[in-house]
Automatic annotation (TrEMBL), chain A:
Region of interest (Disordered), residue spans: 148-167
Superkingdom: Eukaryota
Segments of skewed composition (Acidic residues): 153-167
UniProt similarity note: Belongs to the eukaryotic/archaeal RNase P protein component 2 family.
Name of the protein in question: Ribonuclease P/MRP protein subunit POP5
Biological process, per Gene Ontology: rRNA processing; tRNA 5'-leader removal
GO molecular function list: ribonuclease P RNA binding
Cellular localization per UniProt: Nucleus, Nucleolus
SUPFAM superfamilies recorded: Rnp2-like
Function: Component of ribonuclease P, a protein complex that generates mature tRNA molecules by cleaving their 5'-ends.
Keywords: Nucleus, rRNA processing, tRNA processing
Length: 167, 782
């Protein structure tokens, strides 16, 4: 059987207000994306979006989201993402924009990219620290993510519940 | 919740995410299927049943899965617990113990395992011996005997050592032998030559192998009167026989004279102690010189008979070639050695060189105990710098004292002199395989008991148990042979058997010599009164004037009639008889042998005096078929009638006369018995039995054989019987059929007198299953 291929888009949701980030929900995000695609590409776009589109992973603390699109039409649907200006969730409208970082064929490649991206970010932050405590925290963070499988377990559990694995 | 993000919070969040990602990325996907864990380019369809296609880290898991699935499939069937078969249960834990247990009944020679892999084995005389190889090799063995070399393991020969002073020894031995009989009355007794060569006190004498060796006899006997000590050295000395004209080159290539070692301190091994003694070293040097000269002679038959050479040799395993090479004679002929070679051929080995340290028990034991094992030798070979090069002679170990005894070939007769000459190699025990394998690697052919029979046949010499009917072992052998033949005969269905009664053959399975000798005594004495006629006389009266004479035999004749028959062995009488057997116009015997015997011509008086001297005796003869025919064992030798001789004289290639078929009276009796057994009541049967004048009960009768007691053996057929053939075959050395057997002396003399001189010595031979007579020439080889 010929393989069914998808594309996974690694996006970062940038919000102006930090507190609103935690309110994000994967259903809200997927609704927003569908509406945006429908507005941009009409019925045809809406139909394409309905086949194999879903939000695979959402990290409310960092605003990272994995979106899955079918391979044949991901470019089209990707082009609709910059037109998203706000997300509506539980009656609130959160102004934001999507920043696409990486396109991968599997979730795993996106995960690998994310690891590299985050470590690079942390390394970039280190010289810009203003005080000692921050520096120490960043160093600790860098150390913890260089070890495989290390890190805060409580935080992991919380984050894992938002992950959706499986191909 | 603060509005702005701090670096620390940011870092923490990011770090947490990274670790979560790492964990997710490195863990295998939800499916724990082992086949999915392989990269795509290594996945194969066959791994479901052939787990070896998987890398080792996954193999265990795959095996477990396979077993689970198999069990799931087979859950319904119950697998029975398989116990080992009786054979598997009784299999050895300890191979050596198993071999020793098997050897309790029949002793194994040292080369037994080598033989058992390649030969058909037979259990004989308390030993397990190889009879013939499993591959077809009759003609190659004959070719090896006549042109190259044949090897046999004769370690089953009993070896008896007699120790004492020389004159006492000779006196004791003369009781057993007789001067007139010549050198060998016992087989292999090299009495004369051997005694002459050795002047030392120890005198090794080998006697014939005797199947009747008592198991309870002690190993050493001591004589109180003469001070002789007899030691039984059976299985202490190993004996290999090499037959053939190239046996000396085989020995020369296999053996190398021991290298002298200079060792100042004393050692437990025998050779260094030995080397210190000057006289020993001188002797060793002489022996080595003789051995080196031996390499250059052309054929083994050229040495004088009875040569003995003692030698000390290196371990022959050290110079073992990697592949079998055929030992070739040494082509390099030096002028200087020519002189020495001639001396060797004419005079033999010098007297003192026949000493060997093989006879000293301490030396033998030392050598056997200090033998380098095969494992050790292989380890030494593996440690060589250049693989395949020769191992050095090594330390003081590995010097073996051996004895080389020359065997003369055919010594008697005019044709094929020294055919089948060879050497006997005597070794201490334990060194059997160490010498056997290097000898085999020099391209000899190995033969068993069958070839020793053929060797004696070609040499026209009597072979021990078959052709000695006058000694107890010989008669026992004949009985055993008769039982075997009878058994084979009975196993055939009656319609497929040859009917010996109809062929007129009274004794197809054994030769009744005693009866023949007695009958010929009577015939001769009766025939003296009536010389004319066709030789068939009636036995009307028995003669009681049988005068016994003790001829040159260890068997003492009985004092009362009938006396035992004997075999004529007196040399002078044999020469006389031999000269009478050939036509007078034939070329003379070689002047070297018995020239004086030709002086006495054949006449009535000479015959009578000869006959008076040797009554009741038979003589060993060799018969050559003149045209066609292959003689068999127990063929009859008969006297040709005057008409037969006339026919032969006219055309020598004519076929011989035919015997008219006899009538089988016993057949009807057997049939009657069968019929009566089927139909009659017991009363009728007894009537039938009493009615017939048959002396034998019908159950004794075997269809096709004469029942005992036999009627007159001599005059049963149309031609008078003189004797029988004990061994007969197509002879490859001569190119026609040859037979060896015994004839009655009185009968032979009687016949020779009546034959015309130019056809003297012509007899008739008839196979037991044939009616056709063939003309043969009789020879007595002396």
């Amino acid at each position: 059987m010929v393989r069914v291929k998808s594309r996974y888009l690694l996006c970062e949701i940038n919000v102006s207000d930090r507190r609103d980030l935690l309110k994000l929900d994967d259903r809200a995000v997927s609704g927003t994306v569908k509406a945006a695609v429908a507005r941009t590409h009409g019925d045809y776009g809406a139909a394409l979006c309905s086949i194999r589109f879903c939000v695979k992973y959402l990290n409310a603390h960092t605003g990272i989201v994995f979106l899955r699109f079918p391979k044949g039409c991901y470019k089209l649907l990707w082009s609709a993402l910059p037109f998203i200006t706000s997300i509506e969730c539980c009656g609130r409208i959160i102004p934001c924009f999507f920043n696409c970082l990486h396109v991968g064929g599997t979730i795993r490649t996106c995960q690998k990219f994310l690891i590299r991206y985050n470590t690079r970010q942390l390394h970039r932050m280190l010289p810009k620290c203003k005080n000692e405590e921050e520096k120490r925290q960043i160093q600790k963070a860098i150390l913890s993510c260089s070890l495989t499988g290390g890190g805060d377990e409580a935080l992991e559990d919380e984050l894992e519940s938002e992950e959706e694995d499986g191909e | 919740m603060p509005n702005h993000i701090t670096a620390g919070a940011f870092a923490r969040a990011r770090a947490a995410e990274v670790s979560a990602m790492l964990k997710a990325a490195t863990q295998t996907m939800g499916s724990s299927h082992v086949f999915q864990a392989l990269p795509k380019h290594m996945r194969r369809r066959a791994t479901s049943h052939n787990t070896k296609r998987l890398p080792r880290r996954l193999r265990d898991v795959a095996n477990r899965m396979k077993r689970k699935s198999l069990l799931a499939g087979l859950k319904k069937k119950k697998e029975p617990v398989k116990s080992k078969s009786r054979k598997a249960r009784r299999r050895h834990g300890n191979l050596l113990m198993e071999f020793n247990r098997r050897q309790r009944k029949n002793i194994w020679l040292e080369t037994h395992i080598w033989h058992a892999k390649r030969f058909h084995m037979v259990k004989k005389w308390g030993y397990c011996l190889g009879v013939r190889p499993t591959y077809k090799c009759y003609r190659p063995c004959y070719r090896a005997m006549s042109s190259h070399c044949l090897l046999q393991d004769l370690s089953y020969y009993c070896c008896i050592e007699l120790k004492g002073e020389e004159d006492k020894l000779l006196a004791a031995l003369t009781q057993l032998t007789c001067k007139e009989a010549g050198m060998s009355n016992f087989r292999d007794l090299r009495g004369r030559a051997f005694c002459g060569l050795k002047k030392k006190k120890k005198e090794p004498v080998k006697s014939k192998r005797d199947g009747t060796r008592l198991p309870t006899s002690p190993v050493t006997w001591r004589s109180s009167s003469t001070g002789l000590v007899i030691n039984d050295l059976t299985m202490e000395i190993i004996r290999y026989r090499l037959i053939g004209p190239q046996s000396h080159s085989v020995l020369a290539e296999t053996l190398e004279a021991a290298t002298v070692c200079d060792e100042l301190k004393s050692s437990p091994l025998w050779w260094p102690e030995h080397c210190k003694d000057r006289s020993n070293m001188k002797l060793h040097q002489q022996q080595t010189d003789v051995f080196n000269v031996l390499k250059g002679i052309y054929s083994t038959g050229e040495l004088p008979p009875g040569t003995v050479l003692g030698l000390t040799v290196d371990d022959p395993r050290l110079t073992l070639p990697r592949q079998k090479v055929k030992a070739a004679p040494c082509v390099n002929q030096d002028q200087g050695d020519e002189e020495k070679r001639n001396q060797l051929m004419l005079q033999g080995v010098p007297l003192q060189c026949c000493q060997s340290f093989l006879w000293e028990r301490s030396v033998r034991e030392n050598v056997t105990d200090n033998k380098i094992s095969e494992q050790e030798l292989n380890r030494m070979r593996s440690e060589l710098l250049v693989p395949g090069s020769r191992l050095g002679p090594g330390p003081q170990q590995g010097r073996v004292p051996v004895l080389l005894v020359h065997q003369p070939g055919k010594q008697v007769g005019d044709e094929l002199g020294s055919w089948g000459a060879g050497w006997d190699l005597l070794l201490p025990k334990g060194w059997g395989m160490a010498f056997w394998v290097p000898l085999v690697y020099r391209g000899v052919r190995v033969a068993g008991l069958h070839m020793s029979l053929k060797h004696s046949q070609n040499k026209a010499a009597p072979h021990f148990p078959h052709d000695y009917p006058d000694c107890p072992a010989g008669s026992r052998f004949q009985e055993e042979q008769e039982a075997e033949f009878l058994d084979t005969f009975r196993r055939h269905p009656p319609a497929k058997r040859t009917n010996y009664i109809k062929h007129g053959c009274l004794a197809p399975f054994r030769c009744p010599w005693q009866q023949l000798a007695e009958e010929w005594e009577l015939l001769a004495t009766d025939g003296g009164a009536d010389r004319k006629g066709d030789g068939q006389t009636q036995m009307t009266r028995k003669s009681h004037e049988v005068v016994e004479e003790v001829t040159s035999q260890q068997n003492v004749a009985a004092a009362s009639p009938p006396s035992c028959f004997t075999v004529l062995r007196n040399r002078r009488s044999l020469r006389l008889l031999s000269s009478w057997c050939r036509p007078p116009t034939c070329r003379r015997q070689r002047w070297g042998r018995g020239a004086a015997a030709a002086a006495l011509p054949l006449s009535d008086s000479a015959v009578t005096s000869f006959h008076a001297a040797h009554k009741m005796s038979v003589v060993w003869v060799r018969l050559t078929l003149l045209s066609k025919g292959k003689p068999e064992a127990h063929a009859m030798l008969c006297v040709p009638t005057a008409e037969d001789l006339k026919l032969f004289g006219k055309s020598p290639e004519s076929c011989g006369p035919q015997e008219p078929p006899h009538k089988d009276h016993y057949k009807s009796r057997i049939n009657r018995k069968k019929k009566s057994a089927k139909t009659a009541t017991p009363s009728q049967e007894s009537d039938h039995q009493t009615a017939s004048t048959d002396l034998h009960s019908p159950s004794d009768l075997i269809l096709g054989l004469w029942p005992d007691p036999l009627p007159s053996v001599a005059s049963h057929c149309s031609r008078v019987t003189l004797g029988w053939v004990t061994q007969g075959d197509f002879s490859l050395s001569v190119g026609r059929g040859e037979a060896l057997g015994f004839v009655s002396v009185s009968g032979l003399l009687h016949t020779l007198l009546k034959q015309p001189p130019e056809l003297r010595g012509t007899l008739l031979l008839r196979n037991p299953a044939s009616l056709h007579y063939r003309f043969v020439r009789v020879n007595i080889d002396v």
